[in-house]
Amino acid sequence: MLLWFAGGAWVLVWVVFQDPAIDYRLIMAGAVLPDLVDGPLGGARLLHTLVAGVVLLLGVMVATRGRRRLRRRLLAVPVGVLVHLLLDGTWTDARVFWWPITGWSLAGAGPLPSIAHPLAVTVAEEAAGALALAWCWSRFRLGEPGRRAYFLRTGRLGRDITTG
After folding, report:
1. What is the CA radius of gyration of the chain?
2. Got the DSSP string for 14-63?
3. Which of 65, 66, 88, 164 is the one with CA 20 to 30 A from 58?
4. Sign of CA dihedral 62, 63, 68, 69
5. How many separate domains does the chain show?
6. Distance between CA atoms of 84 and 159, rounded to whole angstroms?
7. How far apart are CA 11 and CA 135, in angstroms?
8. Which ranges in 64-163 belong to alpha helices (H)?
9. pLDDT in tens, 120-139
10. Structural domain of 21
């Protein structure tokens, strides 16, 4: 499940912040990171917890003290991780989401939420993610070579097309 998280995160972050200066590549990378890390570990583990997203956010804040540009860029990763928790429905599993408040063990927490539901739901989510990415492609005119090159190089959107 990549399209659901990448497309969903891009659209959600755009709708909430409407900021062309955010690195949307890092938003999408952060949104797929929990499944890429926790999947090989056997299911919903550390990166599916709220504390991991918050610690990652605080880590970026501390590590980039005095470097505002770098901070602004890197904050996209923990934001993407936190959006993943929303899109994944991880918040419905109190044992994982609220770890370690609900206990220290994550063993037996179950499979990744993104693969735990029926195939039809997974297909619908991926289709929705593909539609979200198509909307972004169209909305931000990424079909234009110059705009696409700028986005691929910086992760940012053109300020001239982000209003209205």
Report:
1. 17
2. HHHH--TTS-HHHHHHHHHHHHHHHGGGTSS-GGGSHHHHHHHHHHHHHH
3. 88
4. negative
5. 1
6. 26
7. 9
8. 68-74, 76-88, 94-97, 113-116, 119-139, 145-154
9. 999 999 999 999 999 999 99
10. 3-158
Q: Which two tokens stand for residue 78?
A: 């923990």
- The answer to whether 5 and 35 are in contact (CB under 8 A) is yes
- The token duo for 45 is 């583990």
Report how far residue 77's alpha carbon sits from residue 42's, in angstroms, rounded to the nearest whole number: 23
As given in the structure block, the two tokens for residue 73 are 């860029």
pLDDT digits (tens, 9 = 90+) for 63-119: 999 999 999 999 999 999 999 999 998 888 888 888 888 788 766 667 888 888 899
